[in-house]
Write a structure and sequence with these properties.
508 residues; alpha+beta; 18 helices; 10 strands
Length: 508
């Protein structure tokens, strides 16, 4: 019998093993290259790259997910998006992103039942995701199931901060949305603070912003301020003029507040006499409820003991303006002082005896509260100027670029006493300032629309020129507004004005 023993040391065996090794290496390299190329294409957003990724990696869910998102957002084809997203979820049913994108597609298609299924699958895939809980809260809110909406809104605050970027803005955005939804679902501030809202200062301030914004939009709407578009997202820095005009509409303010349900400091006692808008399940709460809620929220916020802690002063601004709009300047000042108690900027900006904050303009303008506010006025630019000053390092420069306006955008609210004599002082400088009606100082009671002080217009080329005046406040005056104004304002104004060393002091 012939010996058929096969030796591994023989030349044919070595060749076979080498060929097998080479084949395995080539196959493995091809698999790795295919996966790498597919992965590269899967990270793209254009259709061509995503299609190539699918051909290279047919079992990879990511390109199907991205293609589905593209179909939904870029191609505006929700039906095609549903097809691709379902393919992605068949490959990876544990990806909550896919389920969230799918529910968005069903939302566009108007299929609430399939949307709910997608949302419940997203929750099953990632039950602690704030984004998933936020979308569920939105769904139940749209279905008018306020209890379920509140339950899921509360869970937004309990999830891990997996969506937070280095500044924490993503999670903050979700929390703000959840707070807004909770407030719209249940306008009972005590219930929200006891059962839904986390007990921390940041969330209380966010909710305060939301409530006060709702009130201000409603009040502005009821007053029908001429020439002002209704803001979609209320920006307090850009709306001081709106709030000031609200306060100055004294004759209309009473009827406007009655129509919108807003009252003065005795609103809690007289709320039954206020007329409010008809109830609507998806509308914002009536103004009477909002006013009481805002005050209760602030009372609870004070319990945190913010004195000594440094808060950005602008965080208090919405509520400061809110209290001013409610004709409660004393309470507004208390709010401002409490939240700026730990601020070095406001402490250094106060000058002994001067009721105006930062009257020498030696510090940054906060554009909030009872500091100077620089409004955005077309063709008017106001900023600190270190190249020109009366005393100190800098002054405030206001440049008018052939603009027809009655307002420079420079304004400061000042709490004062009634039946008291005050002295106003300032220094001004101008260059090439021409108009038939130049800018001037105006000091007035914004509630009574009573003008206490109005300077002569400043025109031409002036070196540093003092302006002073005195007046006695009326029996009901508690708040003044100091601003650079124009009256009349029918003709354009061009040129530059500097102001410095502005003061308002109580006169003996």
């Amino acid at each position: 019998m012939r010996n058929t023993t096969f030796s591994l040391n023989s030349r044919p065996a070595s060749i076979v093993w080498l060929l097998a090794l080479a084949g395995s290496t080539i196959w493995f390299s091809w698999v790795c290259a295919r996966s790498a190329i597919g992965g590269y294409y899967s990270r793209a957003l254009d259709e061509g790259h995503l299609s190539r990724s699918i051909s290279f990696e047919p079992l990879n869910a990511e390109p199907h997910f991205r293609l589905g998102v593209r179909r939904l957002l870029a191609d505006l084809d929700p039906e095609a998006a549903v097809t691709e997203l379902n393919r992605a979820l068949q490959l990876n049913p544990h990806d909550s992103r896919g389920w969230l994108a799918l529910q968005q597609a069903y939302l566009v298609l108007g299929d609430p039942q399939q949307r709910k299924v997608a949302l419940l699958n997203a929750e099953q895939s990632d039950p602690t995701s704030p984004r998933v809980q936020w979308e569920l809260a939105n769904y139940y809110f749209m279905q008018d199931d306020k209890a379920a909406a509140l339950a899921h809104a509360k869970r937004v605050f309990l999830g891990p901060e997996v969506l937070v970027d280095e500044k924490g803005s993503a999670q903050r955005s979700l929390e703000a949305g959840a707070l807004r939804l909770a407030w719209r679902s249940m306008p009972d501030m005590n219930y929200l603070l006891d059962n839904v809202v986390p007990r921390n200062a940041d969330d209380y301030l966010i909710l305060l912003d939301i409530v006060v914004t709702d009130i201000s939009q409603s009040q502005t709407e009821s007053l029908d301020i001429e020439g002002q578009d209704q803001p979609v997202a209320f920006n307090w820095r850009d709306q001081v003029r709106r709030s000031w005009r609200f306060a100055t509409r004294h004759d209309d303010a009473t009827s406007g507040m009655q129509q919108s349900g807003t009252t003065d400091s005795s609103s809690a006692d007289n709320s039954e006499n206020s007329q409010t808008r008809p109830s609507n399940s998806s509308a914002v709460p009536e103004n009477t409820t909002q006013v009481a809620a805002a005050k209760e929220l602030w009372r609870r916020f004070q319990a945190f003991g913010t004195t000594g802690k440094e808060y950005r002063p602008e965080r208090a601004y919405p509520f400061v303006l809110f209290m001013i709009a409610q004709h409660e300047p004393d309470a507004a000042l208390q709010v401002w002082q409490q939240l700026t108690a730990g601020s070095k900027i406001t402490a250094e900006s106060r000058e002994p005896g001067n009721l105006l904050l930062n009257g020498s303009f030696e510090h940054d303008i906060l554009s909030s509260g009872f500091d100077w506010t620089i409004l955005s006025v077309p063709a008017v630019k106001a900023n600190l100027d270190r190249s020109v000053s009366h005393t100190g390092r800098q002054s405030l420069s206001i440049y008018f670029d052939q603009v027809i306006t009655d307002d420079s955008g420079v304004v400061q609210f000042v709490p004062v006493k009634s039946n008291t004599k005050y002295q106003f002082n300032s220094f001004l400088r101008s260059r090439d300032l021409f108009s038939q009606s130049g800018p001037r100082w105006c000091v007035e009671d914004p509630y009574a629309r009573k003008l206490y002080l109005e300077s002569e217009p400043f025109l031409g080329d002036l070196e540093w020129t003092p302006y002073s005046g005195n007046f006695v406040t009326g029996a009901d005056t508690k708040l003044l507004v100091v601003r650079i104004c124009r009256d009349p304002a029918e003709k354009p104004v061009e040129g530059r004005l500097w102001i410095d060393d502005v003061s308002l002091t109580e006169s003996n």
